[in-house]
Amino acid sequence: xxxxxxxxxxxxxxxxxxxxxxAQWPESWRKDYRRFETYIQARATYWQPSMLAIRxxxxxxxxxxxxxxxxxxxxxxxxxxxxxxLGLAVKPSTNLLKGRxxxxxxxxxxxxxxxxxxxxxxxxxxxxxxSDVPDAESGRMKREVAMIPPPGEGEAIWPNxxxxxxxxxxxxxxxxxxxxxxxxxxxxxxxxxRLDDQGSIHRSALANPVLEKFLCWRVYHxxxxxxxxxxxxxxxxxxxxxxxxxxxxxxxxxxxxPMPVSNIMQYPLFPGAGGHYAIVPPDGDGDGLPDxxxxxxxxxxxxxxxxxxxxxxxxLINPAADKALxxxxxxxxxxxxxDPDRFRKERGIVGGKLGVR
Length: 357
What we know:
Strands 10, 11, 13, 14, 15 and 16 form a six-stranded antiparallel β-sheet that branches. The protein has a five-stranded antiparallel β-sheet with strand order 4-3-5-6-7. It has a three-stranded antiparallel β-sheet with strand order 8-9-12, with no helix packed on it. The longest helix has 20 residues, at about 25-45. It has helices at about 10, 25-45, 160-170, 325-340, 340-345, and strands at about 55, 60, 75-80, 85-90, 105-115, 120-135, 140-150, 195, 200, 215-220, 225, 235, 245-255, 255-260, 265-270, 275-280. The protein starts with 7 loop residues before the first helix and ends in an 11-residue tail after the last helix. By secondary structure, it is of the alpha+beta class. Helix content is about 15%, strand content about 25%. Among the domains are: about 45-155, Immunoglobulin-like (Sandwich), CATH 2.60.40; about 280-345, no CATH class.
């Protein structure tokens, strides 16, 4: 039933009602959807808005009032190409640029608070650019922030407001955001997506085959929606875009927008051996840098600094390496090298072995 899945351009203009199939869903999905929408309405009524803005100098302005203690704090999550590249503790005076080499580029940012009930984000999410501009005082170039419109509308980009709301919905009560990598604990029946080492998605069929016709893919590549095709009876899926960062889930289309009915899988794809792709790329000398970036892949470098930090040592990076690959590796190096077993477990990766330690 391909009509249950919206075309990508329909998302961009907000034509969600045209794809609504909820009247034919099982009662359990309808109940879960109503609970999700009730949560969204309650958030809009009672949850503190962030009033988030970032000044040209990098100073962070926000309006969330929270009592700082061990179990309560604010974090500014900064996204680049669809992935969190920085989690910055927000204090009374916080500057995004001070003491940090934030690369030139386009970013999204959202405030997230921790409390006894779990992490919740605060709307709105904002978008900004970082660029080099002349400094009138010194005559040198300096980094400057400019607030910009989102690069796409609604769910056509990642992150987006509705899916961040579903992450928050899935967290309550007292769950963690990374649990959604492995299972969706708010929807029944739910589907479990699993990865193999080359980045293909695998799943089992639903026990009730009639429900398969309502399933749609939501696949984001480097923060852009690239596939929203019908997913019914598709038990193995290989992303079409190659190297990059991915967010993959299965959704059903409801009257106010989609609802994920699977875990939300986030992972990178790197060049692998033999022309294949790899979630964890080969590292022949075991120095913590994948072979495609290593300036000296034959002789291991010294084991200091720690493996994940070597990604940020420019003299260890092959100067001929693709800059987009360098940026992709740097966004994921801490997760992969910092705790590779956890990285693997959180994504349910099956087959093969870790290539970087």
